[in-house]
Amino acid sequence: xxxxxxxxxxxxxxxxxxxxxxxxxxxxxxxxxxxxxxxxxxxxxxxxxxxxxxxxxxxxxxxxxxxxxxxxxxxxxxxxxxxxxxxxxxxxxxxxxxxxxxxxxxxxxxxxxxxxxxxxxxxxxxxxxxxxxxxxxxxxxxxxxxxxxxxxxxxxxxxxxxxxxxxxxxxxxxxxxxxxxxxxxxxxxxxxxxxxxxxxxxxxxxx
Length: 207
Fold this sequence. Notes:
Layout: E1 4-11, H1 14-23, E2 31-34, E3 39-41, E4 45-50, H2 54-66, E5 70-78, E6 81-87, E7 93-98, E8 113-120, H3 123-132, E9 137-141, E10 145-148, E11 156-161, H4 162-169, E12 175-177, E13 181-185, E14 190-191, E15 197-200
Parallel strand pairs: 1-2, 4-7, 8-11, 13-15
Antiparallel strand pairs: 1-13, 3-12, 4-8, 5-6, 6-7, 9-10, 10-11, 14-15
InterPro entries: Glyas_Bleomycin-R_OHBP_Dase
Protein name: Glyoxalase
C-alpha cells in the first residue's frame, strides 16, 4: 500500500520557517527547503492538525500567532467541533481542530494527526489517479471528498474540491504558480492531475 512518508514545504527563508515550526513542535513532522518559485494567492492545499480538545486548539493557534502567523479564522465552536485557521509566515495554511466542543482536562500540546488536504479540480479524477498508484480509499463522499488509508504513516492524505477547500479555510480560491509543496512516497516520482509533485523516498530525506 502506498502512502506519504514525508512532506516538504518550500519556503523563502528556511531559518525563519524552522524557528516557526520548532516553536509549534512541528519541526520533526515537516521538512523544509529553500525555494523562490513564484506563487500568488491560494496554493491549493491546507494542512490540518487534529487535537483532543478546544484547549489544545487555542494553545496551537496562540503559539502560531505569537510566532508571526496571521489569523484567517479565529478559534471558535461550530456544529462539528472547535477549530481555527492560521497562515504561517511562509504562506502555508494550517487548520487546527478537534471534534470535542468542551475541555475535559488541561491542554496537552499533543498532536493526534497531521492531515494534508489537496484542493483538486475533480475529486473523482483525483481519487482514480491515486488508486491507480496504490493508495487505498478509507472514506469517500462521492465527488465531494475522499480520504486515503495511510495506516500508521505520518501524514494522512485527503482530496477536497479546490473551491470548497478555499472556503473552508477562509481565503479566495484564486491562485497561480507553485504549490510550494513536495510529497515523498514509496510509489516513485510523479505529478498528479492538479500539479502536486511526488518524489521517491530515496531522493529526499524525511523530516
